[in-house]
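Box 3.1 A note on notation
Throughout this textbook, protein chains are presented in two layers. The first layer is the amino acid sequence; the second is a token string describing backbone geometry. Keep the layers aligned when reading.
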Amino acid sequence: MSSIPPLRLGVNVDHVATLRNARDGASPDPVRAALLAIEAGADGITAHLREDRRHIRDEDMARLKAEISKPLNFEMAATADMLRISLATRPHAVCLVPERREELTTEGGLDVIGQREALAPFIARLNDAGIRVSLFIAADPVQIEMAAKLKAPVIELHTGAWCDAISDAHDSKAELEWNRIVEGAKLAKAAGLEVHAGHGLDYKTAQTIAALPQIVELNIGYFMMGEALFVGLAQTVRDMRAAMDRGRKTLQAYL
């Protein structure tokens, strides 16, 4: 058991900024939320700077980097503008995600196979700058293998399809998607990649996926910000951490 890595919790503060932007003011402040989440036990903070700046803004990223004491995970599309901003901000990590302006949220994993020619020099620039690169991808063997070839040290497995199937009570699809995640995590670990997971996770699914020893970090935002409206952000972070800890205790079944 001592060889099993601890499971980190990254809290995504995007939707604090979404609420702030509804009135185009300064409150609620996503940096304040990040500081509170860290105080309550978060291991890091995630924020997605979208090209249309619909929630997180450039100044939020600068303030997060300057003010938080834990690692900052900068989610972004692989564009020249985002590369410039990330190199100036110097976050702990950059997670490259697909992005369409008309989508409500990130709809799928990055196609590293189709975009490998563009991604290779992009990843190299970030690696050279000492910024850890994570690729947000589906648990698809060919995508995972290409991520390793592109020398991205980390992948984040897209858990949205699995979570949606559970929410819709579509048991056969949920089982299929779960098995893909289990096998994808094993393959990624064997390929030398650090494995994270995120998208659509709640207390129940976070507890379940915490049982996979290959996964060392979960990044969760939307569900936690919704729960925080009722019980407060600090309590939500503590409850999520407790769910993850319960799941981690059952991981022997997957060794």
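Residues 8-254 form a domain with the TIM Barrel fold (CATH 3.20.20.70). Residues 101-105 have pLDDT under 50 and may be disordered.
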